[in-house]
Amino acid sequence: QTVVTQEPSLTVSPGGTVTLTCASSTGAVTSDYYPNWFQQKPGQAPRSLIYSTNYRHYWTPARFSGSLLGGKAALTLSGVQPEDEAEFYCLLYYGGAQNWVFGGGTRLTVL
Amino acid sequence: QVQLQESGPGLVKPSETLSLTCTVSGGSINTYYWTWIRQPPGKGLEWIGYIHYSGSANYNPSLKSRVTISVDTSKNQFSLKLTSVTAADTAVYYCARANAYWEYDYWGQGALVTVPS
Hints:
The complex is a heterodimer.
Chain A: E1 4-6, E2 9-12, E3 17-24, E4 36-40, E5 47-51, E6 55-56, E7 64-69, E8 72-78, E9 86-94, E10 99-102, E11 106-110
Parallel strand pairs in A: 2-11
Antiparallel strand pairs in A: 1-3, 3-8, 4-5, 4-9, 5-6, 7-8, 9-10, 9-11
Chain B: E1 3-7, E2 18-25, E3 33-39, E4 46-52, E5 57-59, E6 67-72, E7 77-82, E8 91-98, E9 104-107, E10 111-113
Antiparallel strand pairs in B: 1-2, 2-7, 3-4, 3-8, 4-5, 6-7, 8-9, 8-10
């Protein structure tokens, strides 16, 4: 069973920078995993932030950026705002099995 | 503006079949991959599966024996059926759209389905 691992929780100060990571139990994450990142606030549906590793949607603030870092997918928030406090999920594609697996989520606290 | 809306019973008895429909408005269901994702209360997201508008589908291996996703292009809808449900299938079920760049761009607001224990 494939497992995708994220940090359970992170805390960042307003205006600071934080990096969330997404690791695969099968080995290094590459662009072939088409990493997606989603933000979910309480009581709301998830909202897509990043797709295919580092592409933003038109609605994604520029302070959110995606990358590959040390064999993991990464989401970096620069100049964190209080409204960025949320749960963040990554999603990876496993081509051989033709399916997708979510990470367990990272709860980001802005304090 | 594309919008997705889930609909279906909010309560399903154990061992019965959960059925949900997602209606797509503001855009055609042709092209794209139409996806179901669920989230048990207080827990993380789980990818259930998707169907291409052409009818080809892929499912989460852990649910594959119980899941069927279908599409009705004439109604701009796609549907989820999950058989033999248990309390562990209690979740908010989301429908979402993914394109050829694997961009999961539009999501429904979610529908809570409860299976009593």
